[in-house]
């Protein structure tokens, strides 16, 4: 099959869904790769680098959509991109079908197939295609780097001829994929790192990474809000009060707070409130990774950096993976080629879109002009 990657058109988006390395893997599956000229530039990949890897470079998006059987990209398509799809063609990208019903209808009317990378079921077998996790990992890392860039002090403590420097104290709220990446980065930079999550099962992992898990004095140390299936549920009012009281106690001590708390399908819980920001030292930094879902911090402004009256910087950027475009593209392109591996069982360039396969079924939101979202619950755990 012919697989093509257009340039991203979302303002500021620097990622690209194909790398020279992923193109080589696609070739081994029997596929032929195409790219729109300039698509990789912001991720540091020139047309020449693609050409060297055997990728055919096409001048514009229209030529690319016309030439290929499968279009792979990062951001959900805009209407004009959906309108370039034709019957029998497949689009693979982030799609957010629940929020993009009109786009789904449009793809259906084109007779196309859409595989949504954000709908890949979070089961072990599909981890290699889990683009949400690969991007959240980058976001967690970058959140710490961004915090450091705005902090004005060292992470690690030092004893120098010019004076003794205490280590920074970092609190990570929410220890999912992004939170664990933030914890690992913060510890490796030498900060004293604390982490909190409503799911007590992550305590051991946090401690093994060299951070301290913040327990609450609540029903024999059991955290609330840990629901079935490994995901968090909203906390009870009593638990929330305990949590907020703990955060109030920690706020004056913390130099950097990274918030990543998320409950699937809901707005982000407000956990770092105005008074906590007001209690922090001037020069401290809050990075709110949940900004897109309304933010965990009261002061967060989506996609902006604001400074509070008492001199605390609050960062609400939602494009951390794009700010590390080379790394993010490498991981995303790998997620895509793993999806292609599953779609090409015989490695002979023939795509078998097996709707009996849990992962492929889960991620397929439009199939040959029929809407197939939402999928049935996966059979395999
Ligand atoms: P995840 O579901 O793996 O983790 C969320 C964590 O928050 C879970 O561990 C959950 O138990 C915890 N949590 C829920 N309620 C809590 C509470 N009241 N107190 C403490 N912890 C609580 O999600 P993820 O993949 O790690 O993503 C984390 C956040 O990062 C999401 O909001 C995601 O949208 C965001 N994200 C942002 C960017 C960016 O550029 N800003 C990029 C990727 C992901």
List its traits.
binds nicotinamide-adenine-dinucleotide; eight-stranded mixed beta sheet; 381 residues; NAD; alpha/beta; 16% strand; globular; membrane; seven-stranded mixed beta sheet; 13 helices
Task: Summarize the helices and strands and which ones pair or pack.
Layout: E1 2-5, H1 20-28, E2 32-36, H2 47-52, E3 56-58, H3 61-67, E4 70-72, H4 79-82, E5 90-93, H5 101-109, E6 113-116, H6 131-151, E7 158-160, E8 163-165, E9 169-173, H7 177-188, E10 192-196, H8 203-208, E11 212-213, H9 237-250, E12 256-259, H10 274-279, E13 285-288, E14 305-307, E15 313-315, H11 320-323, H12 325-343, H13 358-363, E16 364-367, E17 370-371
Helix pairs in contact: 1-12, 6-7, 6-12
Q: Tell me the number of strands.
A: 17
Radius of gyration: 22 Å
* Average pLDDT rating: 95
How helical, in percent, are the residues?
A: 25-40%
Contiguous low-pLDDT stretches (5 residues minimum) are none
- What would you call the structural class? alpha/beta
Bound molecules: nicotinamide-adenine-dinucleotide
> What string, H for helix and E for strand, traces the elements in order?
EHEHEHEHEHEHEEEHEHEHEHEEEHHHEE
Number of helical regions: 13
How far the N terminus sits from the C terminus, by CA atoms, comes to: 31 Å
User: What would the principal axes of the Cα set say about the shape?
Assistant: globular
Strands of the largest sheet, in order across it?
3-2-1-4-5-6-16-17
What's this, in brief?
The chain has 381 residues and is of the alpha/beta class. It is 32% helix and 16% strand. It has an 8-stranded mixed sheet. Strands 11-10-9-12-13-15-14 form a 7-stranded mixed sheet.
């Amino acid at each position: 099959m012919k697989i093509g990657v257009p340039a991203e058109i979302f303002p500021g988006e620097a990622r690209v869904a194909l790398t020279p390395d992923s193109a080589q893997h696609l070739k081994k599956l029997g596929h032929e790769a195409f790219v729109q000229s300039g698509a990789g530039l912001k991720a540091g990949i020139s047309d020449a680098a693609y050409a060297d890897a055997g990728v055919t470079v096409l001048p514009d998006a229209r030529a690319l959509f016309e030439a290929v059987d499968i279009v792979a990209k990062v951001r959900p398509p805009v209407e004009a991109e959906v309108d370039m799809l034709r019957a029998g063609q497949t689009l693979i990208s982030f799609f957010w079908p629940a929020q993009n019903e009109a786009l789904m209808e449009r793809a259906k009317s084109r007779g196309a197939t859409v595989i949504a990378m954000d709908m890949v079921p979070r089961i072990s077998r599909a981890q290699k295609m889990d683009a949400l996790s690969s991007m959240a990992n980058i976001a967690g890392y970058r959140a710490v780097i961004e915090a450091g860039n705005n902090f004005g002090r060292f992470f690690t403590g030092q004893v120098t001829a010019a004076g003794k420097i205490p280590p920074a104290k970092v609190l990570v709220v929410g220890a999912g994929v992004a939170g664990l990446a933030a914890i690992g980065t913060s510890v490796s930079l030498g900060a004293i790192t604390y982490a909190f999550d409503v799911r007590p099962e992550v305590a051991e992992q946090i401690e093994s990474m060299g951070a301290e898990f913040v327990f609450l004095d609540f029903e024999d140390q059991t955290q609330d809000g840990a629901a079935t299936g490994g995901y968090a549920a909203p906390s009870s009012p009593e638990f929330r009060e305990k949590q907020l009281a703990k955060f109030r106690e920690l706020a004056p001590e913390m130099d950097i707070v990274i918030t990543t708390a998320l409950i699937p399908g809901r707005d982000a819980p407000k956990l770092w409130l105005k008074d906590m920001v007001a209690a922090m030292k001037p020069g401290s930094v809050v990075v709110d990774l949940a900004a897109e879902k309304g933010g965990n911090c009261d002061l967060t402004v989506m996609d902006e950096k604001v400074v509070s009256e008492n001199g605390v910087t609050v960062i609400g950027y939602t494009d951390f993976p794009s700010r590390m475009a080379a790394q993010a593209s490498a991981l995303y392109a790998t997620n895509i080629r793993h999806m292609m591996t599953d779609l090409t069982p015989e490695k002979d360039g023939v795509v078998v879109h097996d709707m009996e396969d849990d992962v492929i079924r889960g991620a397929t939101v439009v199939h040959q002009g029929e809407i197939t979202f939402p999928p049935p619950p996966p059979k395999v755990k």
